[in-house]
Specification:
Two copies of one chain form a homodimer. With 319 residues, chain A is of the alpha/beta class. Chain A has 13 helices and ten strands. In chain A, the strands form two sheets. An eight-stranded mixed beta sheet of chain A has the order 3-10-9-4-5-8-6-7, with helices on both faces. A two-stranded parallel sheet of chain A has the order 1-2. In chain A, helix 1 crosses helix 2. The first copy, chain A, is globular. The interface between A and B is large, with 39 and 40 residues.
Chain lengths: 319, 319
């Protein structure tokens, strides 16, 4: 559900409406009963009025009552958190043998942090819940697929946070799980440089030589489809020209500037390393347009489709 | 001419060939006689064999003799430098009242630096030659128009180099000269943030509050078409959606990643603040493909056309 006052419930209902006929999976909507039944009545009535064994609702607590779209409050934030926790429990319990994936809707980190100290985002929360020692965040779009090595870090702290181990583990996780990120088999992986022109032989920074090259040297020998460090002003042009390529970038804006320029409306966030499939739409709660019926469900639709694709890859590998 | 062993002479000849019929201007090619007559015989024979009063050649010294495409040497680097110096002298002399613009072809900074200590690039060289106290480098493409505030600086040094004065003077120069950068009158100017999500209220860096906002506050009040600081992952999407927008970015890769992704083959570098029009193609010497006849003249063609456009704007304003 995400934050009940955001556009999460609305895009979820619109997405289920769109995907129910074509996708042979069951949907379990976790969130506030009142909020979800409201948006499903509006945008996907067949799920609440007809006999839809493939759409289930779970409310992890008491109904919120007076939740108002566009007006986030602490009760809503808490319920968003409880919804995520419930999703984790269901996946961990695995009552049936059917594979499961989690698709999260947008929350307000700040609001959840007020009711749950230390909450910095879905990804970190899920990493802890699934006891994963290393996760990577991939952004999958129609035009580009990108992975930032450092994430929510001030620009001045990026060079300090960029360690050989972090670069190595990220690229390793990407190459091992690239089938979830790209439809192209053995898709090329372009690792960016940190500095302009890759430092121009050390004249403009030396992290290419001291960090990135040593980090990926062994991986490049093992996987010839990995290349880098490639300067930013070459990497994205090359990625666009070579269908299916994945860009592993050194910091947030290096890859999300180009990514969101082209894939603003349809980007999907995919978490690698949880041991369970998890995707989410690549947009925020958009409190300003919540409840107006104008929210674009495209990113949520793509998030659900990518989760289904990942499940089917896993199912195939299991057999 | 640029470096005689690079693709500069070839793209210049191909560009003149293409533009001679349509553009009512005179071309003065400055560079080695042998090298230029060689490429013009191949790619624009009418300029050397016919009576072409609109194409002139100037050699700033003795012919090089054994210059080989793809094999740069110090003689070639020195001649490239002399060619730029000659262009400057001609423009400064202004023997006739006709307006003049300089279009430079790519040089190897490293090679010129070996024969002329302290040479770091065309832009800085021209800034000194024209005694300009502040220049700005704009990249003009079909899809995007971008201006980096800091240029060839290691990523770790960007926050230190980013001063209020530098941001202010860059944005001020862009807003005053935007008619040269964009075809759209009063084009929107999007000033980026330095940190992801514009620092998220200081949680991920505070240069938005301490440097960028105070730098542009006064300019925003005077010119409502300036907005910012806008996070990278919004700025380029917005720039693409609003035709003619100009993005003023805080550092090299922030804008050149997105820019070269879409405008790799046709980007033009435009220098603001010299007091004379100067453009150049947005690619390097490409020694690896020089002399093979495969160099794409598109960026040079666009560079010449932008210079002509700028001259005509200046001519109109003079009348």
């Amino acid at each position: 559900m995400g934050d009940p006052a955001g556009i999460g419930p609305e895009v979820a209902a619109k997405a289920v409406k769109r995907l129910l006929p074509s996708e042979k999976v069951s949907f379990t909507l976790i969130g506030d009963r009142d909020v979800l039944s409201g948006v499903f009545k509006d945008y996907c009535p067949e799920a609440v009025f007809e006999d839809s064994p493939r759409v289930n609702f779970i409310d992890p607590g008491e109904p919120l009552g007076g939740c108002v779209s566009g007006k986030p409050d602490q009760n809503g934030a808490l319920k968003a958190l409880r919804s995520i926790e419930t999703a984790v429990s269901i996946v961990l319990a695995r009552e049936s043998s059917r594979p499961r994936a989690i698709v999260t809707a947008p929350v307000s980190k700040e609001n959840i942090a007020r009711v749950h100290k230390g909450f910095v985002g879905h990804t970190e929360f899920l990493q802890e819940a699934f006891r994963s020692d290393f996760v990577t965040m991939a952004f999958v779009g129609e035009h580009l697929r990108v992975v930032p090595v450092t994430r929510h870090v001030a620009l001045k702290d990026v060079p300090r946070c960029l360690t050989k181990e972090l670069v190595f583990r990220t690229v390793e996780q990407v190459v091992k799980e690239r089938r979830f990120i790209s439809d192209v088999p053995e898709a090329g992986i372009i690792v960016t440089a940190l500095n302009p022109h890759a430092g121009e032989g050390g004249r403009m920074g030396d992290e290419e030589k001291t960090v990135i090259e040593p980090a990926i040297k062994g991986l490049k020998e093992k996987y010839p489809s990995i290349e880098g460090p490639v300067p930013s002003d070459v990497a994205f042009h090359r990625a666009l020209a070579r269908a299916g390529s994945i860009v592993v970038a050194m910091y947030h804006d290096q890859c999300l500037g180009p990514f969101k320029m082209l894939d603003f409306a349809n980007g999907v966030n995919l978490t690698l390393g949880l041991g369970v499939v998890r995707t989410s739409p690549d947009h925020g709660t958009a409190f300003d347009i919540a409840g107006k019926g104008v929210a674009d469900p495209n990113s949520m639709i793509h998030a659900i489709k990518l989760a289904i694709k990942a499940l089917s890859i896993e199912a195939e590998e299991d057999t």
